[in-house]
Request: fold
Amino acid sequence: MKQFFLTVAGVFVGLLLFVVGVPFLLIVMAAGATRPTPVPAQAVLQLDLRSGLTDQAPKSPFAALGSGGTSVLSIIETMRRAEKDDKVKAILVRLPEGGLAPAAADELRLALKHFRETGKKPVYAHSQGLYPSGMITSTYMVGAAASEFWMQPDSSFQAVGVSSESMFFKRFFDKYGVKADYEQRYEYKNAVNPYLYSDYTPAHRESTLSWMGSVYGSALTHAAIDRKREPAQLIKTLESGPYSAEEAVEKGLIDKVGQVSDIQALALEKAGKNAKLIDFGDYASRSKPPTVKTGPAIAVIGAEGAIVTGAGGGGSPFGGDSNVYSDDVAKAFRDATEDKDVKAIVFRVSSPGGSDTASEQILAAVKAAKAAGKPVVVSMGTYAASGGYWISSAADSIVAQPSTLTGSIGVYGGKFAVGDALARFGVDSRPLHVGGDYSEAFAAGQGFTPEQRAKFAGWMDHIYAGFINRVAEGRKLPPARVREIAKGRVWTGEQAKQIGLVDELGGFYDAVDKARALAKLKDDVRLKRMDGAKSPFEAFEQFLGVSETSARTLAAAAWVMGDPRSQAILDEMAKARLRAAPGGAAVLADTPVR
Reply:
C-alpha cells in the first residue's frame, strides 16, 4: 500500500511538472522571441510551399510548433509588407511536386503579381518536378506568375491536365451487409453517392466535369497571360506532354534548368553583394509591424473547416483545429458589432459545409452585424460551399476567386444501417424505445421504416426550402431562380458570378477594398483580427478538460470488430460520421477537393 501511494504521488508530481513546467518553458521561449534579430540590409525571402497550406493561421498559440505548413492569408499579408520593405530585394518560391488547392493558387498568384508590380521586385520560382497529382495545373499557374521559372535538371514536367477519382462502395457494402440509408436534396448533392451507387450518376458526372473544366481553363488562361502565350496554344503544348525539364524550356513552358542552389545564388547575386537568404516564416516573425490600437478598423473574422455547433479549444494546444465553431464565430461578430472602431467586417470563409443548425447561428450573427450598420463582405477561400455558402449568403457583397468551389445549395442526411454486418461477427443489435416510433429512427442496427423515412424526408425538405429562401433573400434572387441553380450543385467562383451567387472575382485584399468602400472609408485602415485566438494558458486549460469517452469507445469498437474485413467498413463509417451532424441531423457539406 505504501508503494502504491508513492507511485500515485510520483505520477501526480510528474503531471504537475508537465502541466505547469512545459507551458512555462514555452511562454519563456515565446517571450524571448519578441526580440527577433533584425532583417539584413539585403534579403531574399524563400517561400517553401512544399509543406502544405491552410487557408488561415491556427488559433492555438502553439499550433505552429507541430506543423510544417503555413497559411495563405499569412503569406499574402507578409508579401504586402515585404513589397514596401527596402531590405527585401526578391522572393524565391519553392513549388510542390503535386497540386495546390486551386483557389489558394489564385490567391498566391495575385499576391506574387502585386509584389512584382507594386514593389518592382523580382520573383523566382523553382520546381523539382511537376507530377499529375491533384490540381497540378494550379501549381504551374503559380510558377508562371514568377519573373523566372526554373526546374531541376532531368526533372519531370507532367502538368498535362487534372483528374479526379472517386471510389464507390455500394457493391462492397452489399457484400458485407451495410446499408447506406440517406436522403439527398437533390441530384447534384453527391457527397454520399459513393455509398449509394457503383458509378457516377449523370448529375454527379456532369457537375464534377463542369467545375474541373472551369478550374482547368481558368488556371491555364492565367498562366498563358503571365507567360505571354496564347491560351489555346499553351493548352495544346501542355496536353502533348509529359516532358523533361529540358524539353519544357525548349517549348517555352519554363525559363531555365538548374539546381535550387543555382537559382538561390542568382537571386542573391542580383540582390546585392552582402545579400542573405531568409526563410519566409522567419521574415514574417521579424517584420511584424507595431499594433495600432486606435482609429477606424475593418474587422477580419475567419471560418475554416467543417461547421459545427459549440465552442472550440478542447483539443491539443499543439495542433490546429479544423472546425468552425458556431459559438466562437457568432461571438466574434458580436464583438465586432460592439466595437466602435470597427466600421466594416470582412468574413473569410473556407468551408465545405457542416451542420445546418450551426450555419444558421452564424448567419444570424452576420445579419445582426448588418442591422447594426456594419457592412459585411465575404472573402471566399478554397471553398465556401453548402453550409459555407449558407453562412455567406446574407453578406453585403461576396468576393470569390475564379477557382473557389461554392454553391452546393442542398442538404443530405441519414445513417448507416450495420445490423446485418455486425451479425456476421456475432454482434446483435436490439433497440428499445419509449415514446414515439421516430425516437429509434437513427438506431444503427436497421434501416428506416417507411414511416420513419417519410418523416425524415419531410425534415430534409424543410431544411432545403429554408436554404433556398435564405439564399433568395440574401442574394435578392427569385426563389424559383435559386431552385434552378441549387439542387446541391457545386459551382466555381467564375461560374457563380455568372449566375448571381458571387458579386466579384478577386482575393482577400479585394474584399478589404470593397468593405472600405461600403463603409465610406477613404484612407487605408487597419485590419483588426477577431478570430478568437487563445492565450497559452487558455489553450492548456481547455486541453486538460478533454473527455476520455471517445477514445474508450473507439478502443472497445476496435476490439469487438477485430476481424480485418471489418476495418474498411469502420473506416468508411468514420469518414461519414465526421461529415454528419449529431443525431442524424441535416448535413450541409461536400467532400473537400484536393
About this structure: Residues 4-8, 16-22, 24-34, 535-584 have pLDDT under 50 and may be disordered. The chain is about 45% helix and 20% strand. The first strand starts at residue 43 and ends at 48. Residues 2-32 form the longest helix (31 residues).
